[in-house]
Amino acid sequence: MPVSNIAKVERFFRASSGLDIDKSDVKRYEDFVNRKIGDLLIRAQAIAKANDRDIIVPFDLPITKGLQESIQAFRDTDGDIGLEPVLDDFVARPQLDVACSDEVDGVIGEIAGGLSIALARSFKIIDPDLKNPQSEHWERSYRIFDLLV
Question: I need a surface site. Which of 59, 87, 105, 147 has the fewest CB within 10 A?
Fold first, then answer.
């Protein structure tokens, strides 16, 4: 990830949750976003197939109320930071048996942003006084999200 994008990720975490992250955290963050977007798209694929379609449309994505609220919080937070285009660039799509519609491709960055807000806030739930997440904090957050997403 280019240095300018790393700076945007760092600014985002400070603005959204008061956390200071470093370059190794940015790699963990990138891995997290890619894993969770992949999980959502795999479920969306199953929904599309169950409805006899070979294309994923937006309502196939399993977006919960909480994730929708986090997406809105991301929109509110990201205005001055500009992280969404960065997310659009680095989010990897898993190999799927169906295609994603243009509408789905157009919202992946916002969904990744919503997951980012939820991740940042999860650190503060795990430890309200946390300033700089360590490996164990990342692992706990991963485990929580693996239970839910």
Answer: 147
The residue among 149, 1, 9, 4 whose CA lies nearest residue 78 is 9
Rounded to the nearest angstrom, the gap between the alpha carbon of residue 33 and the centroid of all alpha carbons in its chain is 4
Identity (one letter) of the amino acid at 8? K
What are the helix (H) ranges across the chain?
3-17, 23-50, 65-78, 84-90, 102-126, 135-148
Token pair in block for residue 54: 């070979």
Neighbours of 22 (CB within 10 A): 12
User: Any idea which residue has 């798209």 for tokens?
Assistant: 41
Look over the chain and give the mean of its residue pLDDT values, rounded to a whole number.
Answer: 94
Categorize the per-residue pLDDT at 70 as very low, low, confident or very high, splitting at 50, 70 and 90. very high
pLDDT, position 1: 67
Domain ranges for the chain: 3-148
| Unique residue bearing structure tokens 């790699």 | 27
In this prediction the pTM is: 0.93
Give CA–CA dist 108/125, Å, rounded: 25
Say if residues 8 and 82 touch (Cβ distance below 8 Å).
Answer: yes
Using a pLDDT cut of 90, give the percent of the chain over it.
89
